[in-house]
Amino acid sequence: MTVSHLTDRTPSLSPDELVTALVPPPRFDGVRFATYVPNPEEPSQAAAVRDCAAFAGRVAEAGRKRAGWRGLFGGGRDTGPMGLYLDGGFGVGKTHLLASTWHEAPSPKAYGTFVELTHLVGALGFAEAVRRLSEHRLLAIDEFELDDPGDTMLVTRLLRELTEAGVYVAATSNTLPDKLGEGRFAADDFLREIQSLSARFGVVRVDGPDYRHRGLPDAPPPVTDAELDESARRHEGSTVDDFDALCAHLSTLHPSRYGRLLDGTSMVHLRGIRPAGDQSVALRFVAFADRLYDRAIPVVASGEPLPNLFTEEMLAGGYRKKYLRAVSRLTALARDAGQVASRDR
After folding, report:
1. Is 207 helix (H, G, I), strand (E, B) or coil?
2. 68, 99, 337, 339: which is deepest, by most CB within 10 A?
3. pLDDT tens, 92-139?
4. What is the distance between the alpha carbons of residues 14 and 174, in angstroms, rounded to a whole number?
5. Can you tell me the distance from the alpha carbon of 63 to that of 115, in angstroms, rounded to the nearest whole number?
6. If DSSP codes are grouped into helix, strand and coil, which group holds residue 202?
7. What is a biological process (GO) this protein takes part in (predicted)?
8. What is the DSSP string of 313-334?
9. The pLDDT value given to residue 213
């Protein structure tokens, strides 16, 4: 069986493809509020399901009012917040709830990560991005990045234009560089960073431990290089790449292309995992890990254990939450690969 390499791929997306690609990734394509399983020890989770469902209902009702006779006279306007912010640590199901909100809301609607949104604005131009997105009833933004002031201001301006045009916005967020919380991002920080939009956002808390590892075993240990090669040969659609070579290749691509890089891939094999050389390498790999997780692609790795990807110095810094989330997601994907291997025996 021929094994391919991610480092041989240089994907690209046209502006039109960037717009049509604004849908939940495969892992969250089938999620709904009914498939979210609240932790019985965390009442905020069940409450979050109700609040998100109510927000989706408001989006639907606003669409009906605009299309109905009351819209002719300007009556029946929704006076509630146009935005919804899901506040909580990693692994509590915020993306599940965000995607469920998107699925529940009527079309037209768009769903993307913050990186995909900024890339869209860059590709289309600000005015054209506003024009196209203003046609939607809901924009869902996962992983709203607050560690780049320029991008934050750009998207804040974009959201202001969209909400004034009647578009509802739902979002989750990542942490600021100087926030050292174990896994939380404070809603106050999000609202402060989006400045003039803060009054337009309602906050929904989602508390609890990382569900990906609740009552489950740790990730399987690294495999040998020989075992890695054998696994790749055994599974159709596998890729094999040296860790250092892949990290170098990721530096040549905009992070918005990482998802397309994985098209047609059933299992990713990484040879020679070791601690990331510097923070820029580490953050690119975090973005890559997110796209792997979005697509539910199992990961087989040789070299050092996955938690060793990020040094103690990195974990003590401002991007701690991102690194911990990446380890959590990669661990889940390595566990998935182990289950596939067990079925094959």
Report:
1. coil
2. 99
3. 899 999 999 999 999 999 999 998 999 899 989 999 999 999 999 999
4. 27
5. 28
6. strand
7. cell division
8. HHHTSTTHHHHHHHHHHHHHHH
9. 60
Instruction: Give CA–CA dist 331/311, Å, rounded.
Output: 17
Q: Which residues contact 191 (CB under 8 A, 6 or more apart)?
A: 85, 198, 201, 203
Q: Do domains 6-13+212-344 and 31-209 have the same CATH topology?
A: yes
Tokens 């791929």 map to which residue?
9
- Top CATH class of 6-13+212-344 equals alpha beta
For residues 119 and 310, give the distance between their C-alpha atoms in angstroms, rounded to a whole number: 27
Q: Phi and psi dihedrals of 133, rounded to 5?
A: -75, -25
What are the residue ranges spanned by the domains of the chain?
6-13+212-344, 31-209
- The pTM (predicted TM-score) of the whole model is 0.83
Q: What single letter denotes the amino acid at residue 13?
A: L
**What tens digit of pLDDT does each residue of 30-72 get?**
999 999 999 999 999 999 999 999 999 999 998 887 665 444 4
CATH number of 31-209: 3.40.50.300
Pairing mode of beta strands 201-205, 168-173: unpaired
End-to-end Cα separation, the chain, in angstroms: 19
CA dist 134 and 165 (Å) reads 6
pLDDT digits (tens, 9 = 90+) for 206-220: 988 877 666 556 678
Indicate the DSSP class of residue 284.
Answer: H
Paired tokens of 296: 């539910």
CA distances from 175 to 23, 247, 254, 273 (A): 24, 23, 21, 26
Report d(CA 322, CA 90) in Å as an integer. Answer: 9
> For residues 97 and 18, what is the distance between their CA atoms, to the nearest angstrom?
23
Residue 95: which region, alpha, beta or left (left: phi > 0; alpha: psi -120 to 50)?
Answer: alpha
Q: Outline where the chain has alpha helix (H).
A: 15-20, 43-67, 94-104, 114-124, 126-133, 149-164, 187-193, 225-234, 243-250, 258-261, 279-294, 312-315, 320-344
